Amino acid sequence: MAFALDPYTAGAAQVDYTITFSYRKEVDVLVFEDGALQTQGANNDYTFFNATTIRFTTAHAGGELITIQRSTSQSTRLVNYTAGALAEADLDNDSLHAFRMAQESIDIANIKLGLTVGQDVWDAESKRITLVSDGTGDQDVVTKAQLDAAALVQLGGGPLGIANGGTGSDTAAAARTALGLGTSAVIDTGTSGTKIPLLDGANTWSGAQIFNGLLTLGTSIAMVDNIVSRAILIDYAEIQNSIGATGGGTQDIDIELGNVVSATVDTSANTFTFSNPSVSGRGCSFTLILTNGGSQTVTWPATVDWSGGNAPTLTTSGRDVLTFVTLDAGTIWYGFISSLDAK
Questions:
Q1: How far is CA 268 from the centre of its chain?
Q2: Which pLDDT tens digit goes with each residue over 168-192?
Q3: Angstrom distance (rounded) from CA 287 to CA 117
Q4: Residue 293 in contact with residue 234, Cβ under 8 Å?
Q5: Which SS3 state, helix, strand or coil, does residue 108 take?
Q6: CB-CB contact of 9 with 65 (8 Å)
Q7: Position 282 confidence tier, pLDDT thresholds 50, 70, 90
Q8: In the chain, where are the structural domains located?
Q9: Could you give the CA distance from residue 262 to residue 243 in angstroms, rounded to a whole number?
Q10: Which of 87, 125, 270, 285 could form a disulfide with 325, with the two C-beta atoms 3.0–4.6 Å apart?
Q11: Is the pTM of the predicted complex or chain greater than 0.85?
Q12: Which residues contact 130 (CB under 8 A, 6 or more apart)?
């Protein structure tokens, strides 16, 4: 138990710290932050908010080690006896001076490095020991700086060699070359196929890859207009292109934005255009869910061929579902009704 020593770990934005011990004057109270002595004063590090509270000028970020301790003067006596009558206050002050110095000595002794009881060994209580001189004798403790310097000498003063468990290199590219990985960061698989890229960056695979286990993708995959063959799909969805109100005029339906399109005809006559279908020789289709299509004049692209050669009559107040298919990159779109006035 400390008699005149209050240690704290600062909280975020904390400024006030309690003094739990008695003291004679403010000058007898010392305040430390992370081991550094702080200065009292309104324009300095801290002030006495009241007799039992230290207030820091700047709030702490959190985690700083704050120590408040009493330090009674060991060089200046409070009482100097002379011939004559003794006052009770003088005796009390003299005794209190010695009593407080004894308490402070005990506090200091308790936080100093000491021998473990019953064992002839020093116990640092899992704390760092700092400001240590370099060891010179065979049984001296060495500092971290000495150990680092000795390690560099032992290892030739440069990067740790491959024989010692290192790469012999001081850059990532040089390390890959030294370890036989090459600058493209590839590694021998030891099975069929010679090498595959390391998967810690962008890679290009030019050959076929076979994954016999579950492949989980945590992001989107761009197929760049390439084929996915023999796939079995479950729990899948299509991207919806939600156009909303067309507002009259020309409204483009961009296939790259989604193969399920929703739109509402309003305001005035509307002309639809279709863009970015798949290349010729590949089937491309999209579904249009159109609300209130018959409320205004709707004009379809001239490339749309309808059943019987006539565009359907759309629902004035309701929802129609139309499907469009092309095999030649939009030279001809085959349009048909999937549902009129769907309810």
A1: 51
A2: 777 877 887 777 776 655 555 545 5
A3: 84
A4: no
A5: helix
A6: yes
A7: very high
A8: 5-75+88-109, 240-339
A9: 6
A10: 285
A11: no
A12: none
Phi/psi at 294 (nearest 5 deg)? Answer: -90, 0
Instruction: Assess contact for 318 and 290: CB atoms under 8 A.
Output: no
**Structure tokens that stand for 284 in this block:** 């491309």
Q: How far apart are CA 132 and CA 136, in angstroms?
A: 12
Amino acid identity, residue 208?
A
| Cα 221–Cα 226–Cα 231 angle in degrees, nearest 5 | 75
DSSP-assigned states of every residue in 294-321: GGS-EE--TTEEEGGG-PPPPPSSSEEE
Tokens of 327: 């095999």
Helix (H) or strand (E) holding 12: none
> Tokens 């704290």, residue?
8
Structure tokens at 53: 């509270």
pLDDT at 156 over 70: no
pLDDT in tens, 192-250: 555 555 555 666 767 777 778 888 888 888 888 888 888 888 988 999 999 999 999 99
Mean pLDDT over residues 14-23, rounded? 95
Whether the predicted pLDDT of 8 surpasses 90: yes
Asked whether 64 and 38 are in contact (CB, 8 A), the reply is no
79 burial type by CB count under 10 A (0-12 exposed, 13-18 middle, 19+ buried):
middle
Cα(59)–Cα(14) distance, integer angstroms: 5
Whether 56 contacts 15, CB under 8 Å: yes
Strand partners, 298: 270
Name the nearest CA neighbour of 251 among 243, 241, 242.
Answer: 243
Q: What single-letter amino acid sits at 330?
A: G
